[in-house]
Amino acid sequence: MTALENKLRVWRPGVDTLEEGEELDFDPSVYDILRSITVEWPCLSFQPVLDRLGAARTRFPHSLYLVAGTQAEHAADNKVLVMKVSRLHKTKVVDSDDEDSESDDDDDDVDEDPILETRSIPHSGCVNRLRVMPQATCGDDIAVVATWSETGRVHCWNISEQLTSLDASGPSAPASSLNSTPLYTFTQHTTEGYALDWSPLTKGRLLSGDCANSIYLHEPSGAEWSSTGVFAGHTGSVEDIQWSPTEQDVFSSCSVDQHIRFWDTRVPERRPRLSAHAHNSDINVISWNHKVGYLLVSGDDDGIIRIWDLRNFKKDRFVAEFTYLRGSITSVEWNPVDDSQIVVGSSDNQVTTWDMSLEPDPEGDELGQDTGAEDVPPQLLFQHLGQQDVKECHWHPQIPGLIISTASDGFNIYKSFNT
Question: Which of 326, 280, 335, 334 is nearest to 307 (CA)?
Answer without folding.
Answer: 334
